[in-house]
TrEMBL record:
MF-aspect GO terms: methionyl-tRNA formyltransferase activity
Organism: Snodgrassella communis
One Pfam family linked to the record: Formyl_trans_N
Catalytic function, reaction form: L-methionyl-tRNA(fMet) + (6R)-10-formyltetrahydrofolate = N-formyl-L-methionyl-tRNA(fMet) + (6S)-5,6,7,8-tetrahydrofolate + H(+)
E.C. no: 2.1.2.9
GO cellular component annotations of the record: cytosol
Protein name (Swiss-Prot/TrEMBL): Methionyl-tRNA formyltransferase
Length: 313
């Protein structure tokens, strides 16, 4: 008999897992997700991807602001569920909640634990130059991504892959992985994590997305990939942010931040070692475009020096 599953998650990454769990025929008596958030130009309240998915399947959805209340915990107990699956939920699960399901709470985490515990494992793996990442299904405990690992699924990061592209690959890898583990929940054998090699994936910030042109080109290229699509790696041109979305490392050399070559098809910028050939770029108030389209309508000339400081700030 298949276990009944409470599901907790919020963004697309979690919605894919919920879809897979429902498609596999598991009973999902309750779905938890973050409260609706204002979004778009009108800042209208928008439901999460998980809420949309749950409602499309006719599932019961609740959106508590905390799971520490007696009311929330009573509701969870009333489901008499076998297991709770958590994926990018965004709320802390107190020990009282972790103890409710018969088989505890399983988390879908987008890294090869213990490497990259925390909020931004995909981005930090790319930024650090990791060649491999993946998905772990983890038995949750009171720590931050410190629980025993049930299964591990490796993914090789492509040399040009962005965080968005790796996210989508791991989203489906995780969805398939959790279904496979739920189907053999009676036979799972969690393995305790080692603290050796543990790293923490801090949240991303706009400030750290600024490009320091004195760094090596290969390092900057990784940052550009890691911060695509959010928050976007940026520099300053004409006192306004200029976002760079895709770039390739070249062997050109010059003063860091200087445009070494500029024509209708090419834009090469010097770094601390090597240089970057820009492929996709976006100036303030405009849309992302290939460098050829950008060069047609802009005058980013050879010899221009890009900075990381807004001079009119």
């Amino acid at each position: 008999m298949k276990p009944s599953v409470i599901f907790a998650g919020t963004p697309d990454f979690a919605a894919a897992a919920l879809n897979a769990i429902v498609a596999a025929g598991f009973d999902v008596p309750l779905v938890l997700t973050q409260p609706d958030r204002p979004s778009g130009r009108g800042l209208k309240l928008q439901p999460s991807a998980v809420k949309k998915t749950a409602l499309a399947h006719g599932l019961t959805v609740i959106q508590p602001t905390t799971l520490k209340t007696t009311e929330a915990q009573v509701m969870l107990r009333e489901q008499n569920a076998d297991v709770m699956v958590v994926a990018a939920y965004g709320l802390l699960l107190p020990q009282a909640v972790l103890d409710i399901p018969r088989y505890g709470c399983l988390n879908i985490h987008a890294s090869l634990l213990p490497r990259w515990r925390g909020a931004a494992p995909i981005q930090r793996a790319i930024e650090a130059g990791d060649q491999k990442t993946g998905v772990c299904i983890m038995q949750m405990d009171a720590g931050l991504d410190t629980g025993a690992v049930i299964s591990q699924h490796i993914y090789t990061i492509g040399t040009d892959e962005t965080a968005a592209e790796v996210h989508d690959a791991l989203m489906y890898l995780g969805a398939n992985a959790i279904v496979a583990d739920l189907q053999q929940i009676n036979q799972l054998q969690p393995i305790a994590q080692s603290e050796t090699g543990a790293t923490y994936a801090h949240k991303l910030s706009k400030a750290e997305a600024q490009i320091n042109w004195t760094r090596p080109a290969i390092e900057i290229a990784r940052k550009i990939r890691a911060f695509n699509p959010v928050p976007g790696a940026w520099t300053i041109w004409q006192d306004k942010p200029l976002k760079i979305w895709r770039a390739q490392v070249t062997s050109h050399t010059g003063v860091p931040g200087t445009v070494l070559h500029s024509n209708e098809h090419e834009l090469i910028i010097a770094c601390g070692s090597g240089a970057l050939s820009i492929e996709e770029i976006q100036k303030a108030g405009s849309k992302t475009m290939p460098v050829a389209a950008f060069q047609t309508g802009n005058n980013l000339q050879q010899g221009t020096v890009l900075t990381s400081v807004e001079t009119n700030a």
